[in-house]
Recover the amino acids of this structure.
């Protein structure tokens, strides 16, 4: 079974390609390499194509005989989305429509979408379940919600079945050491903390220590990238078995504060990792933790990496072996 994986040279996409191959699927990677890396292309066939080139996307889908699609390709920086909304609506919403039009025309009816907990906005209850109101507070979340709404409409109009996976904080690296996290610029906490341990930055900034949490810093749900990749494989199988369109949170249900993450990095690396408290970032909720009951009960998904130290260890091994990332 051939699976189109857009953004398959990126962080989560490349790990998912590896899991798909392990399970006997034939991944077909479509990526323009604006954010992805050639060094992350370890499995499947590859087409260097941008989703804004509808004709090129159509040629790939038709020539490869695609059976289903997993869509990762997107811009994903919350701050940038607020300063450059046109880029985000183009990359995340309009390009997704290009892809969906091609798939519908080709008769492909199974689709797994990389969505986000940012579609929920500020939490009104915790942990967040899939029925939580969706009121995004940033353009990134809005552009993902647009696609979710289109998918619901396609389900009604074209029997186009989709799974929308709403991630929390993807983290960690392939335990085999082949794949890891390499964003440019890097904005995620764990890689930034490890850059301090590697001597690539002097200290780690902590955005606010006066939140209503046990240690005053923000709490997030960190989900290991391999567990996240396996959730995509399970979502695909669910659709293969006739499952209806459905949204699932993907998180462990365990929250760790910024300071707990920094302390974990100190334990794993043996480095003191100096920190400096800076003002809060606008729009940062005190706590975001998933209720993942639905995906556990309906898809049988069960994360392997549930402790922050286990996640940190795989991330440290990758960054220590690849201090310059993929260097491509």
């Amino acid at each position: 079974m051939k699976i189109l994986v857009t953004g398959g040279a990126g962080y989560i996409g490349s790990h998912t390609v590896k899991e798909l191959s392990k399970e006997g699927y034939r991944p077909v990677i479509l990526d323009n390499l604006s954010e992805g890396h050639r060094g992350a292309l370890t499995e499947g066939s590859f087409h260097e194509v941008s989703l804004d080139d509808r004709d090129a996307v159509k040629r790939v889908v038709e020539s490869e005989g695609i059976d289903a699609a997993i869509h990762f390709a997107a811009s994903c920086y919350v701050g940038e989305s607020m300063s450059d909304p046109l880029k985000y609506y183009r990359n995340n919403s309009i390009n997704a429509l290009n892809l969906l039009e091609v798939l519908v025309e080709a008769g492909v009816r199974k689709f797994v979408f990389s969505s986000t907990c940012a579609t929920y906005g500020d939490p009104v209850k915790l942990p967040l379940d899939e029925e939580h109101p969706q009121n995004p507070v940033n353009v990134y979340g809005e552009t993902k919600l647009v696609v979710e709404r289109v998918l619901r409409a396609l389900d009604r109009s074209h029997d186009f079945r989709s799974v929308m996976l709403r991630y929390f904080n993807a983290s960690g690296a392939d335990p085999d050491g082949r794949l890891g996290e390499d964003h440019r610029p890097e904005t995620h906490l764990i890689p930034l903390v490890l850059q301090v341990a590697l001597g690539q930055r002097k200290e780690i900034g902590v955005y606010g220590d006066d939140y209503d949490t046990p240690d005053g810093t923000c709490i997030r749900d960190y989900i290991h990238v391999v567990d996240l990749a396996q959730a995509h494989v399970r979502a695909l199988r669910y659709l293969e078995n006739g499952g209806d369109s459905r949204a699932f949170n993907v998180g462990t249900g365990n929250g760790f504060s910024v300071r707990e993450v920094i302390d974990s990095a100190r334990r794993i690396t043996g480095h003191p990792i100096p920190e400096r408290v800076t003002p809060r970032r606008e729009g940062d909720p005190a706590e975001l933790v998933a209720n993942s009951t639905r995906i556990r009960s309906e898809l049988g998904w069960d994360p392997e990496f549930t402790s922050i130290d286990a996640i940190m260890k795989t991330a440290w091994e990758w960054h220590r072996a690849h201090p310059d990332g993929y260097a491509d």
